[in-house]
Amino acid sequence: MSAYSDQAHDSKEGSEASSAIDHVLDGIAQACIVVSGVLLVFLIVSFGWLVFGRYVLNDTPTWVEQSSLLIVVYVTCLGAAAGVRNKSHLSIDFIREGLPTAPREAMRHVADVFVVLFGAFMAWQGGIMVLDNLGRPIPMIGLSESWRAAPLVVSGLLMMLFSIVNIVQRLATHLGR
Question: Is the pLDDT of residue 49 over 80?
Answer without folding.
Answer: yes
